[in-house]
Design brief:
The chain has about 260 residues and is an alpha/beta fold. It has one domain: TIM Barrel (Alpha-Beta Barrel). It has an eight-stranded parallel β-barrel, surrounded by four helices. Strands 6-7 form a two-stranded antiparallel sheet. A two-stranded antiparallel sheet has the order 10-11.
Length: about 260
């Protein structure tokens, strides 16, 4: 992993992205921390042209986005249009909205929709990824739903955006999942996993939880990952401070 491959997932600072003015201020802060790339997500209304102008002004690259789950499944053409306007080549299906994983028909319909959307995006030069949470680690006939999704869709039509926290939370091994998805993982969500004295798991800044980051980054490197995106769903304090803590740990301990 190189310094230029570290990105900030903007979902982390979603409360500070409600207007174009807030977006401009927040992206300036992200750049001042040291990030040179961002994954666009959870923003208030803003025209792609204005977002491009702000990003360019701060020297930030839009490395990927998250788009609404229903939009990806039912209107991938709109997603393609947005990604092309942002000059961005990667997006991800963010969450299995309204999918009941206990129903075979729901799972098969999701797989079919993602395969079709991914094929359309591929033909337009865009890579569709799947962003996992923990629910995909439910097992059916001895096989996780996440395995079933990746086994059922050609890698040309669906890549992965493994989320390290949610893999761990779901009972998986983030390192093994990086190895399993070699050649199919252009982006990864770096999110640390800690345990509290209240006997509950929680999010943590990178390096402040329990994940083995040196081995994990090595596995992601070997899998061909290009973007290492820092995300923290909730933070104990200021989310910009959390992003800075994560960035400093990565810079000082994990980059080449």
């Amino acid at each position: 992993m190189k310094h230029s491959q570290i990105a900030a997932q903007l979902y982390t600072i979603r409360d500070y992205l409600k207007t174009p003015a807030e977006i401009a201020v927040s992206l300036k802060k992200i750049r001042e921390i040291g990030y040179t790339a961002v994954q666009v997500s959870a923003m208030g209304p803003i025209a792609e042209e204005e977002l491009n102008r702000i990003l360019a002004g701060e020297g930030l690259t839009c490395c990927a986005t998250h788009e609404p789950s229903d939009l990806i499944r039912k209107n991938p053409e709109k997603v393609i249009e947005r990604l092309q306007a942002l000059e961005c080549g990667i997006t991800a299906y963010p969450y299995p909205l309204d999918v009941d994983f206990s129903k075979k028909d729901d799972v098969e319909e999701l797989i079919d929709d993602l395969n079709k959307a991914g094929e359309k995006m591929r033909r337009a030069g865009i890579t569709l990824c799947y962003h996992n949470h923990a629910i995909e680690f439910v097992k059916v006939n001895g096989k996780t739903i996440l395995d079933h999704i990746y086994d059922s869709i050609p890698k040309e039509n669906l890549a992965s955006e493994i989320d390290t926290y949610w893999v761990q939370y779901g009972g998986g091994d983030p390192i093994e999942w990086c190895r399993k998805l070699e050649g199919r993982m252009p982006i990864i969500h770096l999110k640390d996993y800690k345990f509290t004295t209240e006997n509950k798991p929680d999010y943590a800044e990178i390096g402040y939880g329990n994940l083995d980051w040196k081995r994990l980054i090595s596995a992601a490197d070997q899998a061909g990952c290009h973007w290492y995106t820092v995300e923290q769903d909730t933070c104990d304090g200021d989310p910009f401070d959390s992003l800075k803590m994560s960035f400093e740990y990565i810079k000082n301990n994990l980059v080449e």
